[in-house]
Protein backbone atom coordinates (compact mmCIF):
# COMPACT_ATOMS: atom_id res chain seq x y z
CA UNK A 1 0.00 0.00 0.00
CA UNK A 2 2.70 2.45 1.02
CA UNK A 3 4.68 1.80 -2.12
CA UNK A 4 1.62 2.53 -4.24
CA UNK A 5 0.79 5.71 -2.36
CA UNK A 6 4.29 7.03 -2.90
CA UNK A 7 3.39 7.12 -6.58
CA UNK A 8 0.74 9.76 -5.92
CA UNK A 9 1.65 13.38 -6.41
CA UNK A 10 -1.01 16.06 -6.40
CA UNK A 11 1.44 18.74 -7.46
CA UNK A 12 0.85 19.73 -11.09
CA UNK A 13 4.54 20.18 -11.80
CA UNK A 14 5.22 16.47 -11.32
CA UNK A 15 2.10 15.12 -12.99
CA UNK A 16 2.97 13.06 -16.08
CA UNK A 17 1.71 14.66 -19.27
CA UNK A 18 -0.44 12.41 -21.49
CA UNK A 19 0.66 11.46 -24.97
CA UNK A 20 -1.92 12.94 -27.37
CA UNK A 21 -1.79 9.86 -29.60
CA UNK A 22 -1.84 7.13 -26.96
CA UNK A 23 -4.30 6.01 -24.34
CA UNK A 24 -3.18 6.97 -20.88
CA UNK A 25 -4.29 3.58 -19.64
CA UNK A 26 -2.01 1.68 -22.00
CA UNK A 27 1.12 3.07 -20.39
CA UNK A 28 0.03 3.36 -16.77
CA UNK A 29 -2.52 0.65 -16.05
CA UNK A 30 -0.01 -2.21 -15.85
CA UNK A 31 0.92 -1.16 -12.34
CA UNK A 32 0.10 -3.81 -9.73
CA UNK A 33 -3.10 -3.35 -7.77
CA UNK A 34 -3.13 -2.73 -4.04
CA UNK A 35 -2.86 -5.68 -1.72
CA UNK A 36 -3.92 -3.80 1.39
CA UNK A 37 -6.77 -1.43 2.21
CA UNK A 38 -5.43 -0.12 5.52
CA UNK A 39 -5.54 3.55 4.60
CA UNK A 40 -8.80 4.09 2.74
CA UNK A 41 -9.45 7.49 4.31
CA UNK A 42 -6.07 8.81 3.23
CA UNK A 43 -6.61 7.40 -0.22
CA UNK A 44 -10.01 9.10 -0.45
CA UNK A 45 -8.34 12.44 0.19
CA UNK A 46 -5.95 11.88 -2.68
CA UNK A 47 -8.69 10.52 -4.97
CA UNK A 48 -11.40 12.96 -3.92
CA UNK A 49 -12.57 13.35 -7.53
CA UNK A 50 -13.80 9.74 -7.51
CA UNK A 51 -15.38 9.57 -4.05
CA UNK A 52 -19.16 9.26 -3.70
CA UNK A 53 -20.55 11.69 -1.14
CA UNK A 54 -24.24 10.76 -1.25
CA UNK A 55 -26.21 8.83 1.38
CA UNK A 56 -25.59 5.54 -0.45
CA UNK A 57 -21.84 5.83 0.08
CA UNK A 58 -18.94 4.15 -1.68
CA UNK A 59 -20.00 1.37 -4.04
CA UNK A 60 -23.63 2.18 -3.20
CA UNK A 61 -23.33 0.03 -0.07
CA UNK A 62 -23.54 2.66 2.64
CA UNK A 63 -25.71 2.17 5.72
CA UNK A 64 -29.13 3.71 4.99
CA UNK A 65 -31.54 5.26 7.46
CA UNK A 66 -34.88 3.51 8.01
CA UNK A 67 -36.81 6.17 6.08
CA UNK A 68 -34.45 5.85 3.12
CA UNK A 69 -34.89 2.07 3.14
CA UNK A 70 -38.66 2.47 3.12
CA UNK A 71 -38.57 4.93 0.21
CA UNK A 72 -36.22 2.67 -1.71
CA UNK A 73 -38.40 -0.38 -1.06
CA UNK A 74 -41.59 1.33 -2.22
CA UNK A 75 -39.91 2.69 -5.36
CA UNK A 76 -38.41 -0.72 -6.09
CA UNK A 77 -41.82 -2.40 -6.41
CA UNK A 78 -43.66 0.50 -8.06
CA UNK A 79 -41.48 3.03 -9.85
CA UNK A 80 -38.67 0.74 -10.98
CA UNK A 81 -40.75 -1.74 -13.07
CA UNK A 82 -42.83 1.03 -14.63
CA UNK A 83 -39.82 3.09 -15.65
CA UNK A 84 -37.96 0.02 -16.89
CA UNK A 85 -40.80 -0.93 -19.22
CA UNK A 86 -41.17 2.63 -20.54
CA UNK A 87 -37.42 3.10 -21.06
CA UNK A 88 -37.09 -0.20 -22.92
CA UNK A 89 -40.10 0.69 -25.08
CA UNK A 90 -38.54 4.00 -26.10
CA UNK A 91 -35.21 2.31 -26.81
CA UNK A 92 -36.84 -0.34 -29.01
CA UNK A 93 -38.85 2.31 -30.87
CA UNK A 94 -35.73 4.30 -31.69
CA UNK A 95 -33.88 1.15 -32.73
CA UNK A 96 -36.69 0.34 -35.17
CA UNK A 97 -36.56 3.89 -36.56
CA UNK A 98 -32.81 3.54 -37.11
CA UNK A 99 -33.28 0.12 -38.67
CA UNK A 100 -35.85 1.43 -41.14
CA UNK A 101 -33.74 4.48 -42.02
CA UNK A 102 -30.67 2.33 -42.71
CA UNK A 103 -32.41 -0.29 -44.84
CA UNK A 104 -30.64 -0.82 -48.16
CA UNK A 105 -27.87 1.57 -47.03
CA UNK A 106 -24.21 0.62 -46.89
CA UNK A 107 -22.34 1.89 -43.81
CA UNK A 108 -19.13 3.85 -44.04
CA UNK A 109 -16.01 1.71 -43.62
CA UNK A 110 -12.62 3.17 -42.87
CA UNK A 111 -9.92 3.14 -40.21
CA UNK A 112 -11.70 0.20 -38.59
CA UNK A 113 -14.87 2.29 -38.24
CA UNK A 114 -18.43 1.57 -39.34
CA UNK A 115 -21.18 4.18 -39.22
CA UNK A 116 -24.13 5.74 -41.00
CA UNK A 117 -23.18 9.37 -40.40
CA UNK A 118 -23.03 9.91 -44.17
CA UNK A 119 -26.79 9.42 -44.59
CA UNK A 120 -28.57 12.51 -45.88
CA UNK A 121 -32.01 13.65 -46.90
CA UNK A 122 -35.07 12.35 -45.09
CA UNK A 123 -33.13 9.50 -43.49
CA UNK A 124 -30.76 11.77 -41.60
CA UNK A 125 -33.59 14.16 -40.70
CA UNK A 126 -35.71 11.36 -39.21
CA UNK A 127 -32.76 9.86 -37.29
CA UNK A 128 -31.72 13.23 -35.88
CA UNK A 129 -35.13 14.64 -34.95
CA UNK A 130 -36.52 11.42 -33.52
CA UNK A 131 -33.23 10.85 -31.68
CA UNK A 132 -33.34 14.23 -30.00
CA UNK A 133 -37.01 13.88 -29.06
CA UNK A 134 -36.70 10.35 -27.71
CA UNK A 135 -33.55 11.24 -25.75
CA UNK A 136 -35.49 14.01 -24.04
CA UNK A 137 -38.26 11.50 -23.41
CA UNK A 138 -35.82 9.07 -21.79
CA UNK A 139 -34.46 11.77 -19.50
CA UNK A 140 -38.01 12.67 -18.48
CA UNK A 141 -38.87 9.03 -17.79
CA UNK A 142 -35.90 8.59 -15.42
CA UNK A 143 -36.84 11.67 -13.41
CA UNK A 144 -35.22 14.64 -15.14
CA UNK A 145 -38.48 16.53 -15.42
CA UNK A 146 -36.79 19.88 -15.84
CA UNK A 147 -33.22 20.60 -16.97
CA UNK A 148 -31.82 23.98 -16.00
CA UNK A 149 -29.83 25.25 -19.01
CA UNK A 150 -27.91 28.50 -19.35
CA UNK A 151 -26.17 29.65 -22.51
CA UNK A 152 -23.17 31.88 -23.20
CA UNK A 153 -22.03 31.77 -19.58
CA UNK A 154 -21.05 34.89 -17.69
CA UNK A 155 -19.50 38.07 -19.04
CA UNK A 156 -16.19 36.85 -17.64
CA UNK A 157 -16.31 33.64 -19.72
CA UNK A 158 -17.18 35.58 -22.87
CA UNK A 159 -14.27 37.93 -22.32
CA UNK A 160 -11.91 35.02 -21.64
CA UNK A 161 -12.94 33.15 -24.79
CA UNK A 162 -12.53 36.24 -26.94
CA UNK A 163 -9.22 37.42 -25.55
CA UNK A 164 -7.79 33.90 -25.67
CA UNK A 165 -8.42 33.54 -29.36
CA UNK A 166 -7.69 35.26 -32.60
CA UNK A 167 -11.20 36.19 -33.72
CA UNK A 168 -11.40 39.91 -34.39
CA UNK A 169 -14.64 41.92 -34.50
CA UNK A 170 -14.36 42.37 -38.28
CA UNK A 171 -13.76 38.65 -38.95
CA UNK A 172 -16.61 36.20 -39.62
CA UNK A 173 -17.43 33.77 -36.83
CA UNK A 174 -15.95 30.32 -37.26
CA UNK A 175 -17.83 27.07 -36.76
CA UNK A 176 -16.69 25.12 -33.67
CA UNK A 177 -15.01 21.81 -34.44
CA UNK A 178 -16.14 19.99 -31.30
CA UNK A 179 -18.16 20.19 -28.12
CA UNK A 180 -16.10 19.42 -25.01
CA UNK A 181 -17.82 18.46 -21.79
CA UNK A 182 -16.96 17.28 -18.32
CA UNK A 183 -17.91 13.65 -17.72
CA UNK A 184 -19.97 12.45 -14.77
CA UNK A 185 -22.36 9.74 -15.90
CA UNK A 186 -23.73 7.81 -18.87
CA UNK A 187 -26.61 10.29 -18.58
CA UNK A 188 -24.28 12.89 -20.10
CA UNK A 189 -24.70 11.08 -23.42
CA UNK A 190 -28.49 11.24 -23.25
CA UNK A 191 -28.42 14.97 -22.57
CA UNK A 192 -26.08 15.74 -25.44
CA UNK A 193 -28.14 13.54 -27.77
CA UNK A 194 -31.25 15.49 -26.80
CA UNK A 195 -29.48 18.81 -27.24
CA UNK A 196 -27.24 18.61 -30.31
CA UNK A 197 -27.18 14.91 -31.34
CA UNK A 198 -23.40 14.73 -31.88
CA UNK A 199 -21.08 11.84 -32.63
CA UNK A 200 -19.10 10.38 -29.73
CA UNK A 201 -15.96 8.38 -29.15
CA UNK A 202 -17.05 4.98 -27.84
CA UNK A 203 -15.58 1.66 -26.84
CA UNK A 204 -15.45 -0.73 -29.78
CA UNK A 205 -17.67 -3.19 -27.90
CA UNK A 206 -20.55 -0.68 -28.00
CA UNK A 207 -21.03 -1.42 -31.71
CA UNK A 208 -22.03 -5.00 -30.81
CA UNK A 209 -24.51 -4.22 -28.03
CA UNK A 210 -28.08 -5.15 -29.00
CA UNK A 211 -30.20 -2.10 -29.89
CA UNK A 212 -27.53 0.36 -28.76
CA UNK A 213 -25.01 -0.79 -31.38
CA UNK A 214 -27.06 0.34 -34.38
CA UNK A 215 -27.98 3.59 -32.66
CA UNK A 216 -24.30 4.35 -32.03
CA UNK A 217 -23.56 3.75 -35.72
CA UNK A 218 -26.31 6.18 -36.70
CA UNK A 219 -24.70 8.72 -34.38
CA UNK A 220 -21.46 8.28 -36.33
CA UNK A 221 -19.45 7.16 -33.30
CA UNK A 222 -15.69 6.67 -33.50
CA UNK A 223 -14.84 3.29 -31.98
CA UNK A 224 -11.71 2.64 -29.94
CA UNK A 225 -10.25 -0.30 -28.05
CA UNK A 226 -9.07 0.81 -24.63
CA UNK A 227 -7.15 -2.37 -23.81
CA UNK A 228 -5.17 -2.37 -27.06
CA UNK A 229 -1.52 -1.36 -27.00
CA UNK A 230 -1.06 -1.34 -30.76
CA UNK A 231 -0.36 1.62 -32.98
CA UNK A 232 -4.11 1.79 -33.69
CA UNK A 233 -4.33 4.61 -31.16
CA UNK A 234 -2.49 6.87 -33.56
CA UNK A 235 -5.06 5.99 -36.19
CA UNK A 236 -7.93 6.75 -33.80
CA UNK A 237 -6.38 10.09 -32.93
CA UNK A 238 -6.17 10.86 -36.62
CA UNK A 239 -9.81 9.87 -37.18
CA UNK A 240 -10.97 12.11 -34.33
CA UNK A 241 -8.84 15.01 -35.54
CA UNK A 242 -10.27 14.62 -39.04
CA UNK A 243 -13.81 14.56 -37.63
CA UNK A 244 -13.20 17.72 -35.63
CA UNK A 245 -11.62 19.47 -38.61
CA UNK A 246 -14.45 18.42 -40.91
CA UNK A 247 -17.12 19.60 -38.46
CA UNK A 248 -15.26 22.90 -38.27
CA UNK A 249 -15.15 23.37 -42.03
CA UNK A 250 -18.39 21.76 -43.22
CA UNK A 251 -21.71 22.91 -41.80
CA UNK A 252 -23.36 19.67 -42.95
CA UNK A 253 -20.86 17.40 -41.21
CA UNK A 254 -22.07 15.77 -37.98
CA UNK A 255 -20.99 17.44 -34.77
CA UNK A 256 -18.66 15.53 -32.46
CA UNK A 257 -18.62 15.65 -28.67
CA UNK A 258 -15.57 14.67 -26.65
CA UNK A 259 -15.04 14.05 -22.95
CA UNK A 260 -11.39 15.14 -22.60
CA UNK A 261 -11.13 13.84 -19.02
CA UNK A 262 -11.30 10.31 -20.44
CA UNK A 263 -13.27 8.93 -17.47
CA UNK A 264 -16.01 9.97 -15.07
CA UNK A 265 -15.68 11.94 -11.83
CA UNK A 266 -18.09 12.66 -8.99
CA UNK A 267 -18.99 16.00 -10.60
CA UNK A 268 -17.20 18.28 -8.14
CA UNK A 269 -13.80 18.07 -9.85
CA UNK A 270 -12.24 18.53 -13.26
CA UNK A 271 -9.31 16.18 -13.80
CA UNK A 272 -6.57 16.43 -16.42
CA UNK A 273 -7.63 16.86 -20.05
CA UNK A 274 -6.30 14.72 -22.86
CA UNK A 275 -5.47 16.63 -26.03
CA UNK A 276 -7.46 14.68 -28.64
CA UNK A 277 -10.18 17.34 -28.87
CA UNK A 278 -7.65 20.10 -29.46
CA UNK A 279 -5.25 18.65 -32.04
CA UNK A 280 -7.30 19.97 -34.98
CA UNK A 281 -6.67 23.56 -33.81
CA UNK A 282 -10.37 24.30 -34.30
CA UNK A 283 -12.60 26.31 -31.95
CA UNK A 284 -14.54 24.30 -29.36
CA UNK A 285 -17.71 24.78 -27.34
CA UNK A 286 -17.18 24.04 -23.62
CA UNK A 287 -20.17 22.59 -21.74
CA UNK A 288 -20.41 22.08 -17.98
CA UNK A 289 -22.77 19.46 -16.54
CA UNK A 290 -23.88 19.15 -12.93
CA UNK A 291 -26.29 16.81 -11.14
CA UNK A 292 -27.52 18.38 -7.88
CA UNK A 293 -28.79 15.72 -5.50
CA UNK A 294 -29.98 15.12 -1.94
CA UNK A 295 -30.05 11.31 -1.73
CA UNK A 296 -28.52 9.39 -4.63
CA UNK A 297 -25.91 11.02 -6.87
CA UNK A 298 -26.28 10.23 -10.60
CA UNK A 299 -22.46 10.29 -10.84
CA UNK A 300 -21.25 6.89 -12.04
CA UNK A 301 -18.47 6.33 -9.50
CA UNK A 302 -17.62 3.05 -7.72
CA UNK A 303 -21.07 1.58 -8.48
CA UNK A 304 -21.73 -1.23 -10.92
CA UNK A 305 -23.95 -0.41 -13.88
CA UNK A 306 -26.97 -2.44 -12.77
CA UNK A 307 -26.91 -1.18 -9.19
CA UNK A 308 -26.58 2.41 -10.43
CA UNK A 309 -29.53 2.05 -12.82
CA UNK A 310 -31.72 0.57 -10.08
CA UNK A 311 -30.95 3.38 -7.61
CA UNK A 312 -31.41 6.01 -10.31
CA UNK A 313 -34.80 4.67 -11.40
CA UNK A 314 -35.92 4.41 -7.77
CA UNK A 315 -35.31 8.13 -7.23
CA UNK A 316 -38.49 9.96 -8.14
CA UNK A 317 -36.88 13.27 -9.11
CA UNK A 318 -33.40 13.81 -10.55
CA UNK A 319 -31.82 17.17 -11.31
CA UNK A 320 -29.47 18.41 -13.99
CA UNK A 321 -27.84 21.79 -14.58
CA UNK A 322 -26.09 22.64 -17.84
CA UNK A 323 -23.98 25.66 -18.68
CA UNK A 324 -23.02 26.30 -22.29
CA UNK A 325 -20.02 28.60 -22.56
CA UNK A 326 -19.23 30.74 -25.61
CA UNK A 327 -17.21 29.25 -28.46
CA UNK A 328 -13.54 29.19 -27.44
CA UNK A 329 -11.29 30.44 -30.23
CA UNK A 330 -7.68 29.33 -29.71
CA UNK A 331 -4.85 31.79 -30.08
CA UNK A 332 -1.96 31.01 -32.38
CA UNK A 333 0.07 29.97 -29.36
CA UNK A 334 -2.66 27.52 -28.33
CA UNK A 335 -2.93 26.16 -31.88
CA UNK A 336 0.79 25.42 -31.81
CA UNK A 337 0.55 23.77 -28.39
CA UNK A 338 -2.51 21.47 -27.90
CA UNK A 339 -1.62 20.88 -24.25
CA UNK A 340 -1.74 24.61 -23.57
CA UNK A 341 -5.04 24.83 -25.46
CA UNK A 342 -6.51 21.96 -23.42
CA UNK A 343 -5.30 23.38 -20.10
CA UNK A 344 -6.69 26.84 -20.82
CA UNK A 345 -10.12 25.46 -21.74
CA UNK A 346 -10.01 23.29 -18.62
CA UNK A 347 -9.24 26.25 -16.37
CA UNK A 348 -12.05 28.27 -17.94
CA UNK A 349 -14.54 25.45 -17.40
CA UNK A 350 -13.42 25.00 -13.79
CA UNK A 351 -13.81 28.72 -13.13
CA UNK A 352 -17.25 28.98 -14.73
CA UNK A 353 -18.54 25.76 -13.20
CA UNK A 354 -17.04 26.25 -9.72
CA UNK A 355 -15.20 22.97 -10.15
CA UNK A 356 -12.02 21.92 -8.34
CA UNK A 357 -9.00 21.21 -10.51
CA UNK A 358 -7.23 17.92 -9.87
CA UNK A 359 -4.27 16.44 -11.71
CA UNK A 360 -4.95 12.80 -10.86
CA UNK A 361 -5.91 10.39 -13.63
CA UNK A 362 -7.00 6.87 -14.46
CA UNK A 363 -4.12 5.17 -12.62
CA UNK A 364 -5.18 6.74 -9.32
CA UNK A 365 -8.79 5.81 -9.99
CA UNK A 366 -7.74 2.23 -10.62
CA UNK A 367 -5.96 2.05 -7.27
CA UNK A 368 -8.88 3.62 -5.41
CA UNK A 369 -11.46 1.24 -6.90
CA UNK A 370 -9.22 -1.75 -6.23
CA UNK A 371 -8.93 -0.66 -2.60
CA UNK A 372 -12.71 -0.44 -2.26
CA UNK A 373 -13.03 -3.87 -3.81
CA UNK A 374 -10.50 -5.46 -1.48
CA UNK A 375 -12.05 -3.80 1.56
CA UNK A 376 -15.48 -5.17 0.72
CA UNK A 377 -14.09 -8.62 0.00
CA UNK A 378 -12.47 -8.58 3.41
CA UNK A 379 -15.82 -7.61 4.94
CA UNK A 380 -17.56 -10.50 3.26
CA UNK A 381 -18.63 -9.02 -0.09
CA UNK A 382 -17.51 -10.24 -3.46
CA UNK A 383 -17.95 -7.14 -5.54
CA UNK A 384 -15.46 -6.80 -8.35
CA UNK A 385 -14.89 -3.30 -9.61
CA UNK A 386 -12.90 -2.36 -12.65
CA UNK A 387 -11.83 1.18 -13.49
CA UNK A 388 -14.40 2.07 -16.06
CA UNK A 389 -15.11 4.64 -18.65
CA UNK A 390 -18.65 5.03 -19.84
CA UNK A 391 -19.35 3.63 -23.29
CA UNK A 392 -18.93 7.12 -24.75
CA UNK A 393 -15.81 8.40 -22.96
CA UNK A 394 -13.02 9.66 -25.17
CA UNK A 395 -9.60 8.18 -24.41
CA UNK A 396 -7.46 10.37 -26.62
UniProtKB/TrEMBL annotation:
- Biased amino acid composition, Basic and acidic residues: 20-31
Which subcellular locations apply to this protein? Membrane
Which pathway does it serve?
Lipid metabolism
Q: What is its main location?
A: membrane
**Which keywords annotate this record?**
Acyltransferase, Lipid biosynthesis, Lipid metabolism, Membrane, Phospholipid biosynthesis, Phospholipid metabolism, Transferase, Transmembrane, Transmembrane helix
Bias type Polar residues, positions:
153-166
Q: Where is this region: Disordered?
A: 1-31, 153-174
**What is one cellular component GO term in this UniProt entry?**
membrane
Q: Tell me the GO molecular function terms.
A: lysophosphatidylethanolamine acyltransferase activity; O-acyltransferase activity
Q: Which residues cross the membrane?
A: 72-97
**Domain Phospholipid/glycerol acyltransferase spans what residues?**
177-292
Q: What superkingdom does the record give?
A: Eukaryota
Output the GO biological process annotations, alphabetical, semicolon-separated. phospholipid biosynthetic process
Recorded family membership: Belongs to the 1-acyl-sn-glycerol-3-phosphate acyltransferase family.
> What is this protein's record name?
Phospholipid/glycerol acyltransferase domain-containing protein
| Naturally occurring in which organism (per UniProt) | Gossypium tomentosum
Amino acid sequence: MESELRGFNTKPSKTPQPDPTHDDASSRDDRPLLTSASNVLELEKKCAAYVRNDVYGAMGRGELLLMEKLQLGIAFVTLLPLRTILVMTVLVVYYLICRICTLFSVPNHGEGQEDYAHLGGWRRTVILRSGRFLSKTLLFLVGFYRINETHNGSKNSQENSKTAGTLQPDEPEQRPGAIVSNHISYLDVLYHMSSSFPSFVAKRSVANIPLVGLISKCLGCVYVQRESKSSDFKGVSGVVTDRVRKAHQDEYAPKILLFPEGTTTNGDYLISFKTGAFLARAPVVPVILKYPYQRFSPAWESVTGMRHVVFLLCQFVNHMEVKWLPVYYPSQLEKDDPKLYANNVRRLMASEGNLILSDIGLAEKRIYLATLNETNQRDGFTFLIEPKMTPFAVIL
